[in-house]
UniProtKB/TrEMBL annotation:
Pfam families: Peptidase_C69. This is Secernin-1. Belongs to the peptidase C69 family. Secernin subfamily. GO terms for biological process: proteolysis. GO terms for molecular function: cysteine-type exopeptidase activity; dipeptidase activity. The lineage of its organism: Eukaryota, Metazoa, Chordata, Craniata, Vertebrata. It comes from Pygoscelis adeliae.
Amino acid sequence: RMAAAPPSYCFVAFPPCSKDGLVVFGKNSARPRDEVQEVVYFAAAAHDPGSKVECTYIEIEQVPKTHAIVLSRPSWLWGAEMGANEHGVCVANEAVVTREPASESEALLGMDLVRLGLERGATAKEALDVIVALLEEHGQGGNYYEDGSSCHTFQSAFLIVDRNEAWILETSGKYWAAEKITEGVKCICNQLSLTTKIDAEHPELRNYVRSQGWWNGDSDFNFSEVFSLAHDHLACCSGRESLEKRGGDVSAQAMIDVLRDKDSGVCVDSESFLTTASIVSVLPQDPSFPCVHYFTGTPDPSRSIFKPFIFVDDVKLVPKVQSPSFGNDDPAKKIPRFQEKPDRRHELYKAHEWARSLLENDQDKGQKLMRIMLDLEIQGLEAMEDILT
């Protein structure tokens, strides 16, 4: 079991810090270095009464209707690290460690809750309500990694954003607290960050921590101080200052620049972990404009291109960013799990590996290729900016 959660980062910027009345959301997903992340789309759907949905480890009750969603997810699981729905809701997950050990029993993963929140919530607050209700009913637990030799378990934190507001939701077991954000810049990472400003919480939260002897009921209730391991509740603001320094000029490009920054640690590239995928979403506060979501679908945003996605009536699936399916033969579904590790690389991932080797082995050709790709990214950003303005 790993001692610490991987250092992923999520950001949101609201006016007046962001440009042109836009809400800008971004996340780097730090995962095991060799894990493949895919980009997948699921259309809105109606479901029969009494039907079930099979999540990563457990089956739960389905709802009558699910929204259209686009996800960036580790390709072996059902849920997602991050994604968006047709109503302009974005959700991202962070693995966190608290003083309460995470359960190894298979339940809902934090990534499952991301997808369920997006499928069932038409606003950020609705998505939050969905997640905490499912947490109460089914709990969270199970292996976060495709690893048959060890069970890596974590608690979950979420950044949930729509055109008007964001919620930071932090959990420990079934207990949770949330803070509402409507302006400025906010960053969350793999440490608890909620303190005394709590706008919603589990109804039994304070009674529970009092019964555990973690809070005496006399001092101000500080969520991260109560639930964090010693000295582990410091604010993780890597990248936040970079966004704040831009004043009212935070744009998609500014968020991309922050996600690409290795010196700050936001872009993770270590022996164990790598930023395996990234997302930037631009949510106009004017509902007559569409939301635009940019996905890399490949590792290391400093060497990846952000590609735009907009929800339209007839979304075409892109097989090149989808991993092969192994059906019921998938080692992630067989018990005991993860006894083998199949090749989950999709075509875009393989092309990215080729480009990376070119960058490393032929600097001139590699730099030329990178310039061409960045020019294409800039064209995409400019075209989307024209749509939004």
